[in-house]
Amino acid sequence: MAHFSAFFVIGLFALTIVGLIRYQAQPERVFGILLLVLYCTDMVTTEQVISSFANKGLLTLILLMVCSIALEKTKLLRQIAAFVVRPCYVQTWVRLYGVTVLSSALLNNTAVVSTMLAPIRNNQHHAASKLLLPLSYAAILGGTLTLIGTSTNLIVNSMVLDIGLEPLSFFDFTAVGGLLVLGCGLLLFGVSSFLPSYTASKTTAADYFIDAKVSALSPLIGRTIEENGLRNLESLFLVEIVRDGRLISPVGPQELIEENDRLLFSGDIKKVTLLNQFDGLSLYAYENGLPIQNLTEVVIRPESLLAGKTLKQVGFRALFDAAVVAVKRDGKPLSGKLGDIELNPGDYLMLAVGQDFQARHNLSKNFYFISGVQTEHLLTGRKACLATFGFFSTIALSALEIVPLFQGMLLLLGLLLLTQCLYANEVIARLPRQIWLIIASALLLSQALSNTGALDLLSALISQHQQAFSPLWGLVLVYVLTWLITELVTNNAAAALMFPIAYGLAFSLDSNLHSFILAVAFGASASFISPYGYQTNLMVYSAGNYTLSDFVKIGLPMSLLYGGIVISAIVTIYGV
């Protein structure tokens, strides 16, 4: 009976891998079914189910991802992105690689790549396809430098805690990760010349038209569009500048900003709050004292008194207790200052409204109401400083082993909620439920392998073939299997599935357990050939118009060198 239970769990392990390959887009469902089967067949206890979801390492990962949301809402990452792009390709590549590696070592590498995507994709100097794949690979390599650099390292740490071992330290990965950053970085620079030069499709100014004014004391004045980081904003595009009655269009990257310039953008209205992160750049709604966190979208009716008139002529603010943030006209591009545009029936207006707006009796005569639009809530001033300083202080205290990472992140989350840098609904909406379920289910699978004696069967099998399994070949086997599962499935699933196998193998071979743990962590991050194994690869896959052959051509030599460095470094530094 005991052997039947062991083989049953081993069968579930194999079926889970098959399910993950078959349903790559739905790993949480595969692991959810695994969890239910393990529990319903009494392979795990109720207490083990509860402890898996409440695992300290897993909760630390969740807290880290939630607290990083506040950092994403500051202008720090966008300032970093603006620093990268330069006319010289080599200079741009080196800056991109260095900045991405360092950022990914301390921040969520998915957030780093998502912030860099728009500036790289929309830059005027280089084909985006020459830079986006190096961006993803740099994020992967940077994530290997520290405990918090990638979710796979934290997943492995959660499983280390689950079996009762000492937690991995912040810099346990740095020695091997540093060699990877140097060695693979040099190779990546060499093979980047083989990347295709795909031209990105041009974005047309067919969306909302947004008007922002440069104030007299703005630090933007006297600097170019490119230096100010205004050229490649995420989903917002600088269409033209109105200066002393003249229209400057198209706007070149070297155009200097002057006092009282009107900068006219087109794009996603939800991103309009990005403009508030530039000191001295104000929207019409803010000039009128109206907030733009929640906007109201309306369409001008045919019988409206606005038809054929401008916003200035009708006295819009006094008439409706609202200010126009942006205008959209289907089928036609708009031009000129927002207040000078002659409005037509059918024009879409995005309104920032005052408290008296809903009480006005003239609304239904002038507008069709479409919907409310919630803009992105970004942080400025003291809140931005608090989010940035708080996050990096917590990381520093953890790295110096003064305050445990879990405790620091929990206290930081409380502070962010109390100061309204984060809101409860944001936390709930961005809670990484998928990762939580995957890791908790994988922890349960590990428990089931132990409960049923499946790991003892592995130990017995190895002892019968002792000559074929040396510690070195065991380490290589663990790394290669983890790498293959990462390429076929995902990095998080690979780390979660391979940890119990690595633990059992190291125990059976009487090897250095720490080396086997690191082999799993680094193997789970070795996703270079497939665009589906790592989130950052998937993000740049469509953005750069890449094909699968592009990943294979660049990723295969990267994978081979990466694996060689990992195995050599682990054996040399830690032994087997």
Automatic annotation (TrEMBL):
GO terms for molecular function: monoatomic cation transmembrane transporter activity. One of its GO terms (cellular component) is plasma membrane. Keywords: Membrane, Repeat, Transmembrane, Transmembrane helix, Transport. It is found in: Membrane. The keyword Repeat applies. SUPFAM superfamilies: TrkA C-terminal domain-like. It holds the Pfam family CitMHS. InterPro entries: Cit_transptr-like_dom, DASS-Related_Transporters, RCK_C, RCK_C_sf. The chain crosses the membrane at residues 6-23, 30-46, 52-71, 131-155, 175-195, 384-400, 406-423, 435-455, 475-503, 515-534, 554-574. It is a multi-pass membrane protein. Residues 197-281, 283-368 form the RCK C-terminal domain. This is Transporter. One of its GO terms (biological process) is potassium ion transport.
